[in-house]
Amino acid sequence: MGRIFDLTREIDANHFRWKVNIESFTTVLTGKSFQVTKLVITSHIFTHIDAPKHIDESLPSIDSISLSTLIGEGFIMDLSYVKENQRIDIGDLRKHEHEIKEGDIVYCQPNGMRRGTSMI
Q: Hey, where are the domains in the chain?
């Protein structure tokens, strides 16, 4: 069995680029028996997946992606050399094509993202 990586990233209210608004409506501290929290974030930060439709309107949307396609053998593509706000293009991806096997899940790891990745 290979290594298992947890790619989730904690939601950080102090994110350097995207504003995060976390607001408590009710809490057990105010005498309620439950807590209700409103969370407002952009959909393109922290742990997320880009649907094919993200780059081409004619391709499938996220609701048509089977969860089974998100678990399996994979390859972590080290793109740490890419500077902040620098575009990742096909040339960057082709540098790694000899390392990717048919059916691999490819995780593109740009600059600074390694901090949030842990091995289980």
A: 9-48, 50-120
